[in-house]
Amino acid sequence: MWVEILCGLILYKVIKRFFYDDDILEVESSDSNALFSVSDRLEKLYGGKAYVGLRIPDADTGTRQNIDLVLLTKGGAVVVSVKNLAGFVLINADGSWSCETKNKTEHLPNPVEETRKQASILEAYLEQRGISLPEGYLSCKVILPNPKCCTIQAGSFPPEVITYDQWTQQKPETKTMFSGWLKGAFGGGKKEMQESIQQNLHFTLNTAPIWDRVELKGKYVLGEFLEFKGKQEDLHALRNIKRSKVSRLVTQKTSMLGFAHSTLQVLYSPRDYRSEGASASEWEEVCVRSSTEVVFQPQNSTKVRKFKLSSVISMTLSA
Q1: Is 271 exposed, middle or buried (CB count within 10 Å of its CB: 0-12, 13-18, 19+)?
Q2: Which of 18, 133, 240, 288 has the fewest Cβ atoms within 10 Å of its own Cβ atom?
Q3: Closest by alpha carbon to 175, among 64, 30, 75?
């Protein structure tokens, strides 16, 4: 009996491995989830708009600089680096960080210096697009949102670092912990200049390169959309969903089509650089088999993932 149970478990894992590679439970997306959780909370605490998963061109290196998020409020703009560290975190003599757990020690280059560099690259990119920021308008922060993160000698961390304990203390009505972070960069009588910069920043950040993203059930995955996989007629129906034409798609409820297979409604928004997205009346619709797959290359991973469209809530594509 036990041999049969063991063989059954092995067979189940083999089948799952080869036929259900898109299993949501196997997706390592905790860092992306932490990133979107922080962005949502920042918007609730301080208002404004958080732009997540930016890939800003760096003219000096010819590459793209990853920026976790940029929070844009009436008081200024903040480049935020989210470090989803779990373990004991301490600062080394050279400014680098070490995160120690029971099984390993992870070494990180100085996150504050990295975030300052990201802010500098972002500012240069904005200048290339015709936006010159006033001195002090752009600042940076490093946030440690993981409850399993323990900071040793928290007082030794630079003021740019927000530890987990400090992060949990933030409330909409009390912003003392972030005093000086969102300070205004304009003096009195410059309201029109501030509003003009705000408007230009929103447009520029909204059209800046980003990581593609897939929203699954309770999870986010950042990376690069590669293609769809499925029946030829489904691929033909999805032919217009490409980054040059579409900014976002969402899936709707499934319905039965005879007894052969179930179908899924896919609504997609035509790309429009003049605004932040299409209105509900502008969404277009196609119906495909729910078994159709999204082929996706996650950020910082060498493994290509396949997600069934029935598991996908939405997908956003960079220009």
Answers
A1: middle
A2: 18
A3: 75
Which of these, 313, 290, 293, lies nearest to 225 by C-alpha position? 293
- pLDDT, one tens digit per residue, over 31-70 is 899 999 999 999 999 989 999 999 999 988 889 999 999 9
Q: How far is CA 25 from CA 94, 224, 262, 280, 302, in A?
A: 39, 20, 23, 32, 18
Rounded distance between C-alpha atoms, residue 220 and residue 72, angstroms: 22
CATH class of the domain at 30-207: alpha beta
Q: How confident is the model at residue 181 (pLDDT cuts 50, 70, 90)?
A: low
> How large is the greatest C-alpha to C-alpha distance in the chain, in angstroms?
83
In sequence order, what are the beta bridge partners of 245? Answer: none
CA of residue 168 relative to chain centroid, distance: 21
CB neighbours of residue 28 within 10 Å: 13
pLDDT tens readout for residues 232-280: 999 999 999 998 899 999 998 765 554 456 788 999 988 875 655 445 4
pLDDT above 50: residue 19: no
